[in-house]
C-alpha cells in the first residue's frame, strides 16, 4: 500500500529525536555499555525503592529494586520491549492478524505502539492523518471523545447511519457513491481516506457490528482505498461466549489501525493502551509521541507487565471473563429497570457488549434541557444524545445510560425518576 497518501504534511515532516533514539538504543545495550549521552536522572536518587502491590486474589505482586529503577526511568517511546512482545502474543492469540508475520512488506507488517490510553493513540493518529477540509467517515452517533478530537481539526464529519448492529454498509456505500473508487489514486480528489468505527458496545448506543457487516465494510474499504480505524475498548466486554472477529483479523492489506485499551479491564487510571497496525504508521505515531509525551508511564507498563507475566494469556483471559460477567449482570439489571418503568415511554435495544443503554424517549423532540437541567434537579444523571451526534445542532430524543457503576437499586430508582420526567415533559408539551 501507498501509505504516504494518508499522512499529512506535519506527520511527513517529523524526524526521530536523536536523544530518544539513544534512549531506546541504551535500553537494548549490554551492561558493559558506558553512556554519556542521555540526560537520564540517576535512579539512585529516586525516593521510591520497591513496591508490594496486593492483588484482589490475596497474592502480592512484588516490584523489586532493580525492576523499580526501570519503572521510574525514561523508556523507549514505542513502549517497553518485553510488554510489546507480550502484546503481540496476545494479538496473535486473539486475532491472528494476517500481517503479523508479513516479512514481504516491511511497511504493512503489524507492529504495536504503547500509548497513554487508547484516547491518546486515537488523537495522535488523527493528527497525523487528516488535514483541514478532509472528509472523515464515522459512526453516527459516535464516541464524544472522538468528536472532540476531530472538530478542532477542521474536517468534514460524514456520519454513517447506525442501528443496533452498528454501522450500516448500505449507508456507507451511499455516502461514498459521490466518488469513483478510482479517485483513491487521484491526489487532488477529496475522496475520504479514513473510516472510524467502534465495532463492539458502541459508546453511546451499545451497538455491535455483525461479522457480515465487518466483512462488507472491509471490502468497501478495499474498494475505496480507506484506512480502517478500529476503536475497540469494549472487545472483552462482549456478553456472548464467542467473540466477534475483529477488523484486524481480516486485514490482509495492512489497512487497519486497531486501538485497544486496558482501562475497562485492568484500570482506567493507569492510562495504558496500544495501537496495532502497519509498521510505517505505528512508527509515525511513535515520532509524534517523541515530540509530546515521550512515552507512556514506565511504571504503568511495568506494573501491568509483571501482572501479565504472572497470569499469562490464560489467566488474563480468565480475568476478562470475570469482568464481562459482572457487566452482563449490570446490563441485565438496567434492562429490568427499564422494562419496569419505561415501557411505553421509551424504546431501546438490549446491548450485547459494553457499558451503555441507548434510550429513545417517546413524545420528546430533544433531550438536552430535560437531561442537563430537569434530570439533575431530580437527582438522576444521564447524557443527552446530542453530545454524540456528528451534527450536534440537530435535535435528538435519545439519552445514554451507563450501567457500569450504579447498584441495581440505584438503577431502578434512576429509571423511575426518568419515567416521571418523561411523563411531565409529555404532559407539558403542546399537542
TrEMBL record:
Metabolic or biological pathway, per its Swiss-Prot or TrEMBL entry: Amino-acid degradation; L-lysine degradation via saccharopine pathway; glutaryl-CoA from L-lysine: step 4/6
Domain Aminotransferase class I/classII large: 65-418
EC number(s) given by UniProt: 2.6.1.39, 2.6.1.4, 2.6.1.7, 2.6.1.73
Pfam families named among the record's database cross-references: Aminotran_1_2 (PF00155)
Keywords, alphabetical: Aminotransferase, Pyridoxal phosphate, Transferase
SUPFAM superfamilies documented for this protein: PLP-dependent transferases
Signal peptide (residue range): none
Organism superkingdom: Eukaryota
Catalytically driven reaction(s): L-kynurenine + glyoxylate = kynurenate + glycine + H2O; glycine + 2-oxoglutarate = glyoxylate + L-glutamate; L-leucine + glyoxylate = 4-methyl-2-oxopentanoate + glycine; glyoxylate + L-methionine = 4-methylsulfanyl-2-oxobutanoate + glycine
GO molecular function terms noted in the UniProt entry: 2-aminoadipate transaminase activity; glycine:2-oxoglutarate aminotransferase activity; kynurenine-glyoxylate transaminase activity; kynurenine-oxoglutarate transaminase activity; methionine-glyoxylate transaminase activity; pyridoxal phosphate binding
UniProt keyword annotation of Transferase present: yes
A cellular component term, taken from the record's GO annotations: mitochondrial matrix
Gene3D superfamilies reported in the protein's UniProt record: Type I PLP-dependent aspartate aminotransferase-like (Major domain)
Keyword Transferase: yes
Cofactor: pyridoxal 5'-phosphate
A biological process term (GO) from this entry: alpha-amino acid metabolic process
Job description of the protein: Transaminase with broad substrate specificity. Has transaminase activity towards aminoadipate, kynurenine, methionine and glutamate. Shows activity also towards tryptophan, aspartate and hydroxykynurenine. Accepts a variety of oxo-acids as amino-group acceptors, with a preference for 2-oxoglutarate, 2-oxocaproic acid, phenylpyruvate and alpha-oxo-gamma-methiol butyric acid. Can also use glyoxylate as amino-group acceptor (in vitro).
Family stated for the protein in its record: Belongs to the class-I pyridoxal-phosphate-dependent aminotransferase family.
Protein name: Kynurenine/alpha-aminoadipate aminotransferase, mitochondrial
UniProt source species: Owenia fusiformis
Amino acid at each position: 500500500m501507498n501509505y504516504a497518501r494518508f499522512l499529512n504534511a506535519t506527520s511527513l515532516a517529523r524526524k526521530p529525536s536523536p536523544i530518544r533514539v539513544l534512549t531506546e538504543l541504551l535500553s537494548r545495550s549490554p551492561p558493559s555499555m558506558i553512556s554519556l549521552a542521555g540526560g537520564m536522572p540517576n535512579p539512585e536518587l529516586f525516593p521510591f525503592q520497591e513496591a508490594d502491590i496486593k492483588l484482589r486474589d490475596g497474592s502480592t505482586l512484588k516490584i523489586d529494586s532493580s525492576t523499580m529503577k526501570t519503572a521510574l526511568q525514561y523508556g523507549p517511546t514505542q513502549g517497553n520491549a518485553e510488554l510489546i512482545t507480550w502484546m503481540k502474543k496476545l494479538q496473535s492469540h486473539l486475532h491472528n492478524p494476517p500481517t503479523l508475520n508479513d516479512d514481504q512488506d516491511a511497511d504493512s507488517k503489524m507492529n504495536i505502539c504503547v500509548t497513554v490510553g487508547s484516547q491518546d493513540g486515537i488523537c495522535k493518529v488523527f493528527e497525523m492523518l487528516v488535514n483541514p477540509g478532509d472528509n472523515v467517515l464515522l459512526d453516527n452517533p459516535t464516541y464524544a471523545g472522538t468528536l472532540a478530537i476531530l472538530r478542532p481539526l477542521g474536517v468534514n464529519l460524514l456520519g454513517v447511519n447506525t442501528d443496533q448492529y452498528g454501522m450500516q454498509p448500505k449507508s456507507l456505500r451511499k455516502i461514498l457513491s459521490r466518488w469513483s473508487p478510482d479517485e483513491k489514486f487521484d491526489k487532488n480528489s477529496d475522496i475520504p481516506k479514513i473510516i472510524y468505527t467502534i465495532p463492539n458496545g458502541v459508546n453511546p448506543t451499545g451497538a455491535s457490528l455483525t461479522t457480515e457487516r465487518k466483512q462488507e465494510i472491509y471490502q468497501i474499504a478495499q474498494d475505496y482505498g480507506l484506512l480502517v480505524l478500529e476503536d475497540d475498548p469494549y472487545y472483552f466486554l462482549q456478553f456472548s461466549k464467542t467473540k466477534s472477529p475483529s477488523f484486524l483479523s481480516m486485514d490482509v492489506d495492512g489497512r487497519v489501525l486497531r486501538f485497544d485499551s486496558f482501562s475497562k479491564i485492568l484500570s482506567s487510571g493507569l492510562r495504558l493502551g496500544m495501537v496495532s497496525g502497519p509498521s510505517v504508521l505505528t512508527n509515525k505515531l511513535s515520532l509524534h509521541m517523541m515530540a509530546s509525551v515521550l512515552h507512556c508511564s514506565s511504571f504503568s507498563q511495568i506494573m501491568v507487565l509483571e501482572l501479565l507475566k504472572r497470569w499469562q494469556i490464560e489467566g488474563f483471559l480468565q480475568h476478562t471473563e470475570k469482568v464481562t460477567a459482572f457487566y452482563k449482570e449490570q446490563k441485565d439489571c438496567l434492562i429490568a429497570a427499564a422494562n419496569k418503568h419505561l415501557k411505553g415511554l421509551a424504546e431501546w435495544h438490549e446491548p450485547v457488549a459494553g457499558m451503555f443503554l441507548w434510550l429513545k424517549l417517546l413524545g420528546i423532540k430533544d433531550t438536552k434541557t430535560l437531561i442537563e437541567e430537569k434530570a439533575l434537579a431530580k437527582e438522576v444523571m444521564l447524557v443527552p444524545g446530542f453530545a454524540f451526534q456528528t451534527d450536534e445542532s440537530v435535535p435528538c430524543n435519545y439519552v445514554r445510560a451507563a450501567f457500569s457503576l450504579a447498584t441495581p437499586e440505584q438503577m431502578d430508582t434512576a429509571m423511575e425518576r426518568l419515567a416521571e420526567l418523561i411523563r411531565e415533559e409529555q404532559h407539558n408539551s403542546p399537542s
